[in-house]
Design a protein that fits this description.
CATH topology: Cytochrome p450
Shape: globular
Bound molecules: protoporphyrin IX containing FE
Distance between the termini: 54 Å
Structural class: alpha+beta
Largest sheet: 5 strands, mixed
Amino acid sequence: MAESDAGGLEGPDGWPVVGNTFQFARDPFSFYERCADMGDVVPYEIAGRTFYLVSHPEAIERVLSTEHGTFEKGSFQREQLSGILGEGLLTSEGERWREQRQRIQPTFGPEKIDSYVGIMTDCATDAAERWRGEQRIAVDDEMRRITVQILARSLFGTDISDHVETIAEAMGDIGAQAEAPAAAALLPEWVPTPWDRRARRGVEAIDGVIEDLIDRRRGDAEGRDDLLSTLLVAHEEGEIRRGTLRDQLVTFLLAGHETTSLALSYTWYLLAENPDTRERLHAEVDDVLGGAVPTMADLGDLKYTERVVTEAMRYYPPVHRVVREASEDVELQGRSIEAGSILTMPQWIVHRDRRWYDDPLRFRPERWAGDSDRPDYAYFPFGGGPRRCIGMRFAKLEAQLILATLARAHRLELAGEGGPLELQSGVTASPAEPVEMIPRAR
Ligand code: HEM
């Protein structure tokens, strides 16, 4: 172990002043791997702030769930996200968060989510039609198109197909901030960098989409119970301000499609790299559906399909780390952590830890058959505790249905070499290059 400049604590060697900023910025995934090799709770320093990489499931469970009151999302997360999401459900804290979650939770009840099955399979069927005759597709763009459409038609009760390109471009602009060189992290926050300016342009484009959504649905909310109607009625009755309405809609528009679209892109890629697994998936889909579009009644029988998605989110977790700030001094796995430290809990590391997974770099959906004695938080793609993803049921249902609907009609093959995907780290882990694939009609 090395002595770092993070307050004289033991962690990866850094340079004076910048700590581990450059190592981290060059390749956060390898940096986390290096830290995790040193222990379950390892300090490092970025841009003058002390962080700890917390990679033991028991410690993660304490932070996210059993002792969640001692940890908050904190200023680091706010700085990263509030410029885009404002104070929506993902970024707010305390009473404000509780009140919003209570208002929104009923629109995510199981019956409500299950009622979206038809929308999900319709949007996937449209994509299968589009693919006929295509030589090559960027699977990440295609998955984004499907998940944006599903989100808008189900939670916002409207079609925003005409905005898909704007949203995709805006996501690229916003994501570019994560690619800013390490030096940008050392600048005072009030110095705007070119990456900040690009991100601002992205936020303005998203705001334009939201304005249009509100205009389309204004006066048409009464008597409907989707998310947008619930929020519009609350606004019209003076319960939430216009700014909150905007923040909430941006949060759901972005958090509600990007992650699921990534999960599906990784799933297709891993299937194409593992043809035996892909063929087993096709066999299940053919056997259960007999060529028809899946319905709610089929889901229980599409077990292998479900395991494929579960395993893909283990292998390439769309959200690759969850972050919290300690609001008081605490002890984790024998290590004292001072108030104000930032804790990074990396799905990327925990999901590939040999203590919980045999042969973790093999894509093996079979590992999810039957019970296992691994700790609960050895798998946490949706986070945990009270701030666990509100869209978890929606996302799992959607991923399973899209996969089955498309696998009925197409087999996706790699257009390139295969091998580990190069990822870029932002709020999510996304492919650094478009994921090109060849759709073969079956
Ligand atoms: C595979 C898909 C998805 C993944 C991997 C995912 C992952 C996550 C994670 C890890 C968190 C917790 C963040 C934290 O604790 O700091 C979270 C929260 C959240 N997710 Fe998801 N998510 C997915 C899909 C969705 C969908 C479909 C929606 C909405 C329709 C959604 C909306 C949200 C919201 C609003 C929060 C904040 C909840 C709160 O703090 O109360 N997510 N998600």
